[in-house]
Fold this protein.
Amino acid sequence: MACAAAILGWAFVAAGQQSLVPAVQQVWEAREFDGGINAVDEGKAIEFWQDPISQVRWVFATGYVTDSTGHTRFATYKYKADFPEAGPPLKQAEAFYPPPGFNDREHRAVAIAVDVYGNVYVTGAAQRPLSNNYDYLTIKYNQNLVPMWSSPA
């Protein structure tokens, strides 16, 4: 089985400094984190999963996007990624929390996990209504990124 690595997020090297990151060959990239306005959208976590029956390999990525109201929401994407043989990634599904049109607070996903059945768990911080305080929020999706439950509800 081929080895795969992923880099998600951002980094910079100060002028005159040498990068400690070894040279790597880029196989593909996906730029989905765009909330529709010129604001901060950030990838935070990535997880690989191989379907035990079809042997198809999938990549799930999560982070947050800034929507047109200036608030952030969880953004999670699923790609078919049999790289390098299959070429560029093919986006299969996407999910946002809260859904478009229902966001009046800040929500930032920071971690993702996939169980053996392909269920996806995304967790992060959710701002309380009419407050500057935050709670954790975990959402379980099926492998097609359909929400199954969230906690706290």
User: Anything to note?
Assistant: The CA atoms of residues 66 and 72 lie 4 Å apart. Residues 1-6, 9-14 have pLDDT under 50 and may be disordered.
